[in-house]
Structure formats: C-alpha cells, structure tokens
C-alpha cells in the first residue's frame, strides 16, 4: 500500500501547547485526507517563533514506514522520527531519495520542523510504504 499526497501546504499552526510559548507553533496532520492545507495565523504580538508539524498515521498492522518526499517547495529545517517516544533525526528528503522512518509500526509519527529562513510555508509529499 502506498498513499501519496499531491502536495501538502503548511503554514505551521496551533500554539500554546508547544513549550508553553504561544509564539511557538505546532499542529498535527490528518493523514487520512488526500490533500490538506493548514492555515494557522501567527498570534498577535509574536514576532519570532518556531514551527513544527507532526505527521501521524494509525494503521491496523505494524508493517509500514512513513516517508517524506521532496516536492516543488520543500524547505524543512529538520525531520525526526518520534514514533513511540523516540527522537531520532532522519535524513533530509531529496528529489531522488525520500527520507523514511526506520522501524515499521502501526502508529507512525514523524516531526517536521520549519527551516530557520523559511517565513511562511513549505510543501512536501509523504508516502506510507508497506515493508514486505
């Protein structure tokens, strides 16, 4: 099973839960939607912060990995596997080489962090790949 997203636009969202700083933005992606646009305003008074997006997939079997793929405007600062409480850095995706979580699981989680110089958006693809 491979599930592709044409492109995922994110304007990193939902504050107040991330490090108790309302200017640090975070949201969770619903991977059941084929295309999703997340539009989150920066809270009034915030002039700097960080942005993170948690990609999360809950599957019926523990035989798949989550891969991040480059798209037309992929600008990420970091990609980390956080499945099961881990915090393992992953390679940055490139045109010819997606970055995939290391262990198959039924509850896949990958954290994407904004690039320091990226101001308002990024686009990327993801795929859930079954390991045979």
Give the averaged pLDDT, no decimals.
Answer: 76
The total number of structural domains is 1
Percent helix: under 10%
User: Termini separation (Å)?
Assistant: 10 Å
Instruction: Give the strand tally.
Output: 11
Keywords: Signal
Signal peptide: 1-17
What does this entry show, briefly?
Helices cover 0% and strands 44% of the residues.
List the helices and strands and how they pair.
Blueprint: E1 2-4, E2 8-11, E3 25-30, E4 37-39, E5 51-58, E6 64-70, E7 76-81, E8 88-89, E9 99-100, E10 107-114, E11 122-130
Structure report:
This protein has strands at 2-4, 8-11, 25-30, 37-39, 51-58, 64-70, 76-81, 88-89, 99-100, 107-114, 122-130. The model is unreliable at 1-19 (pLDDT under 50). Strands 1, 2, 4, 6, 9 and 11 form a six-stranded mixed β-sheet that branches. It has a five-stranded mixed β-sheet with strand order 3-5-10-7-8, with no helix packed on it. A hairpin with a 6-residue loop joins strand 7 (76-81) and strand 8 (88-89). The protein is built from no helices and eleven strands. The protein starts with a strand and ends with a strand. It is 0% helix and 44% strand. By secondary structure, it is mostly beta strands. The protein has a single domain, classed as Jelly Rolls (Sandwich), CATH 2.60.120. The chain is globular, with a radius of gyration of 14 Å.
Provide tags for this entry:
Jelly Rolls, 11 strands, disordered N terminus, five-stranded mixed β-sheet, 132 residues, globular, six-stranded mixed β-sheet, mainly beta, signal, 0% helix
